[in-house]
Backbone:
């Protein structure tokens, strides 16, 4: 059975007639740029000690957890 209100459904294009499509031209998308990995300037020495710090912190936490659980 067909719905008698088929012709009464509103047109989605005319939902808000005051809204207009706008093309954003504030950024230049035509000029090719280098990938971010090629334009970074990270020193090789930076962050090298963090894995060691995390291993030490993890070992301390394991020792504390073992002390709390077994003694």
Residues:
């Amino acid at each position: 059975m067909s719905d008698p209100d088929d012709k009464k459904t509103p047109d989605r294009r005319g939902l808000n007639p005051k809204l207009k499509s706008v093309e954003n031209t504030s950024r230049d998308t035509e000029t090719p740029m280098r990938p971010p990995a090629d334009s970074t300037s990270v020193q090789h020495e930076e962050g090298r000690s963090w894995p060691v710090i995390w291993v030490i912190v993890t070992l301390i936490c394991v020792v504390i957890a073992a002390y709390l659980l077994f003694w």
Remarks:
- The radius of gyration is 31 Å.
- Helices lie at 50-70.
- The chain has a mean pLDDT of 78.
